[in-house]
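sorry for the late reply, my laptop died twice this morning and i had to redo everyting from scratch. anyway the thing you sent over, i finally got around to it. pasting the sequence first so we're on the same page, its 359 residues, then the predicted structure underneath. double check i copied it right bc i was rushing
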Amino acid sequence: MIERQKRHKAKPKKNRKKMAMIILVALLLIGAGGYLFRKPLAVMAFDLFLSGKVEETLERSYSPLEGEQAQSVQPQEENMKPFSVLLLGVDQRNNEPARSDTMIYAVVRPEDAKVLLVSIPRDTYTEIVGKDKEDKINHAYAFGGEKMAKDTVENFIGYPVDNYAAINFQGVRDIVDALGGVELPITKDIVNKQADHEKFTIQAGKPLYDGTEALNFVRYREDSDFNRTKRHQVFLNAMVNRMLKLDQVTKIPELMNLMGDNFKTDLPPSQIIDLSKQVLLGDASPQISGFTIMGEGIRLNGVYYDKANEEDVTFAKEMIDNWLNPETEASALITPESRDAEKAETEQNSTQGTATNQE
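ok and here's the structure:
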């Protein structure tokens, strides 16, 4: 009887040794950089060591909108369908009111690893849903947080926002530093020098830019609102590329912890994890297409606004409809480049027609 109990007690130890061997083999394979199985092994390592920790950390950032029902857990195949996200870059310094410095309507196509970013300049003049007034679109966040920003963007763009994700710019600095810096295409020194602005200089031509420089890059506003919006798209693209280049699964918990209170979303943690693994296992790197709705500067009662270009709004809606449709093949996706090509062709045909008439 005593001998049997001894054998019974020894069994868990044997199981622990077996599990330790499996983990050791997985670590050795990943460390050796097995090319053909690198991505599946990375996902296996994530599931073994990190998924529970990451999901627990993401719970801190999970914040369903007030008055809207929390999303239930969807089957993985449902999570892979195209969906829209309102990306909000929130600028809050010290005790100042929070402002949405960046507003981007994004369409994510997980199976194609493609993302469409439609940027809406912060000074765009539109109806603020819930305030019964027209104002700068970024004021919606100041008036009513993520919910009013979501409702206002839905009304402006004409399509639903499935989810939102808001990050405080203060958190950007720490995340970039944790990644070891980020590559930015700065070919000329950027100098913030106006009397009422924070003073800084970002030197051109550096291989990597640290968190403070990256934050200043997205905040710089002394050229135009349009250029600033384009810089936000460039920065997001650079961040994605940097994360993929690092290819270090072990960085994930650190990045999640750094985001902490600086990040809020109503995307359930399990869905974020499923999407991340889909990208990791995909054959292609994520491709980002960016489009900015242009506007014409106007003054009303002494206040400057951007009046959105109706052609741009119409084209943005056409792209969004095309990208949200799960039946649209990747090769048939409408992109900003396709519009430029169409314009060039129209101008060429017009020029040829004029030349023919002159003959």
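The chain has two domains: 4-32, 64-351.
thats about all i looked at so far, will dig more tmrw
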